[in-house]
C-alpha cells in the first residue's frame, strides 16, 4: 500500500501565539482489532478556522474525525491511543463524560439524519433533554440556530412541518442547526455535502464559511475543490498518516510532498 515514503512525514504545528489552538491530537493511533488504521497523527486545529481533511478512500479520514469526539467508542473493535487535547481536557481519557464533551465538540454526518419530528422539535429535542424547558428560550435558540445555518428564511413559516419533508440540502442545514443548538465550540463534519446536489452543496459551503466567525470547523471531504474553496488549512491523509498539513493555498499550489502533489493532481484517489 505504501507507495510513498511515510518516514519523512513533517507535520507543521502552530508555534506563534496568535494562532489559538482549539483542538490538537498527539500521537493518535486508532486500531480496529489488530489492524492499525491511524498511525500516530499529531495535528493542531486553529480556532475560528475551517480545517479540511483530504486523502484517498480508506486513508483514515473518517476514522480520525470520529476519534475527535469519541464516536469510535461505539465500535466494539476500535481502540484509540494518544491524546486529544481540548482546553485542559484529554478527550480520550476514560474519565471524560462523553455526553458532556459532545456538547462542546459536535458532529454532522454525511447523510442528513433529521429526526422524524417537526423542524422545530429537531432543534428543541436535545435542548429540552439538557434542561431548557421554557418556550420563549427554545423559540429563541431555534430561530438563532436556523439563522446561523442559513435555513431560517426558508422554514420560518413551517416550523411545525416534518423535517423529513425538507429537501436533502435543507435537511443537512437543519442537522447543522441542531448541532449548533447545544453551543459547541467545535463542529466536526464528515463529508457534509457529498450526498447533496451542486446547488445545495454551494448553500451548505456558504453556511460553513459563515459559521467560522463563531465556531472551529473540521471537515472531511473527498471534494478537493470544496476543500480549496472553504478551508483555511488542509491536512492530507495517506494510509493512516497525516502526511502533510498547512495553509490550504500552499497545499494546493505548492505541496511539499510528491504524494500530496500526485493526489491533488488526480493521479490517485
Ligand atoms: N467499524 C470498522 N471496523 C473495521 N474497519 C473499519 C471500520 N470503519 C472503517 N474501517 C476501515 O478503516 C479504513 C479507513 O476507513 P475510513 O472510513 O476512516 O477511511 P476514509 O479515508 O474516510 O475513506 P472514505 O473516503 O472512503 O470514506 C478502511 O480500510 C475501513 O475498511
From TrEMBL:
<dbReference type="InterPro" id="IPR003593">
    <property type="entry name" value="AAA+_ATPase"/>
</dbReference>
<keyword id="KW-0813">Transport</keyword>
<dbReference type="InterPro" id="IPR003439">
    <property type="entry name" value="ABC_transporter-like_ATP-bd"/>
</dbReference>
<protein>
    <submittedName>
        <fullName>Phosphate ABC transporter ATP-binding protein</fullName>
    </submittedName>
</protein>
<keyword id="KW-1278">Translocase</keyword>
<dbReference type="GO" id="GO:0016887">
    <property type="term" value="F:ATP hydrolysis activity"/>
</dbReference>
<keyword id="KW-1003">Cell membrane</keyword>
<dbReference type="InterPro" id="IPR005670">
    <property type="entry name" value="PstB-like"/>
</dbReference>
<dbReference type="GO" id="GO:0005315">
    <property type="term" value="F:phosphate transmembrane transporter activity"/>
</dbReference>
<dbReference type="GO" id="GO:0005524">
    <property type="term" value="F:ATP binding"/>
</dbReference>
<dbReference type="InterPro" id="IPR017871">
    <property type="entry name" value="ABC_transporter-like_CS"/>
</dbReference>
<dbReference type="GO" id="GO:0035435">
    <property type="term" value="P:phosphate ion transmembrane transport"/>
</dbReference>
<dbReference type="GO" id="GO:0016020">
    <property type="term" value="C:membrane"/>
</dbReference>
<keyword id="KW-0592">Phosphate transport</keyword>
<feature type="domain" description="ABC transporter">
    <location>
        <begin position="23"/>
        <end position="264"/>
    </location>
</feature>
<keyword id="KW-0067">ATP-binding</keyword>
<dbReference type="InterPro" id="IPR027417">
    <property type="entry name" value="P-loop_NTPase"/>
</dbReference>
<keyword id="KW-0547">Nucleotide-binding</keyword>
<keyword id="KW-0472">Membrane</keyword>
<dbReference type="Pfam" id="PF00005">
    <property type="entry name" value="ABC_tran"/>
</dbReference>
